[in-house]
Each structure stands twice: as structure tokens, then as C-alpha cells.
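Reopening this ticket.

The earlier resolution said the output was attached, but the attachment link was broken on my side. Pasting everything inline this time so it's all in one place.
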Amino acid sequence: MTQSLSPLQIIPVLSTDNIKRDLEWYEKYTGFKYAFGDDGYVGLQRDNLEFHLQFHHANEDDPVFPSVMKIFVSDIHTYVDEFVKRGTIQKEKLRMNTPWGTHEFGFYDLNRNAIFIVQDV
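Inline output:
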């Protein structure tokens, strides 16, 4: 008999070389706020979303590797308006009706992690 999997959630972990700086940036530009952690690893939350930042020394032995994170939402326009007001993006970043069936916009954090806000069409 095969046992079925019941995943509970998935939490992206993004690299950083400066957790304190990035916590301030994420709160100002995305609305994600500190939830837990220390100077090496933190969790950020907004609504029912969560992701983590992990410190790396940004050297050959412990590099900062940029990642990509997509956050799916039900109403892209609410987020566009908010992120324009925050100064995170310009309204022209919104791409409507992409060939892969989404409305979306994206931006980079201070470590070159790409974050996309996406609505399925």
C-alpha cells in the first residue's frame, strides 16, 4: 500500500550577506516583517505568506546565491498599486497577459534575489 503525502507548506530561503539591512528593506518595500530569528537566519511574514533569509559571508567558501521567488495572488492590481506607492516598482513593470497565462511584475532585492508577484489569468 502506498502512503499518500500530505505536504503542509513550502518556505523559500533566500541568501543574504546583511540580515539587518535586508529586514529593513523588506519591511519598507514589500510589507514583509520580522517574525523570528537572529543575525544568521530569520523568518519574515506577511498575511499568510512566509519566507526566510539565511546569512552567507559572500566569499568563495560561503557565497550569496541569488534565487527567484514567485508569490501568487488573486488580484494583481492591489499589489501593483501598493508596490508603486512603496517605491518598489514603477507601474510600467506590470506585464499583462504573458504568453504563459499570467499577469505579473517583478523586482530584485538588495542581494539580486528576483521576486515576482503573479496572478494566473
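Reporter confirms the inline version is readable. The first strand starts at residue 13 and ends at 16. The chain has two helices and seven strands.
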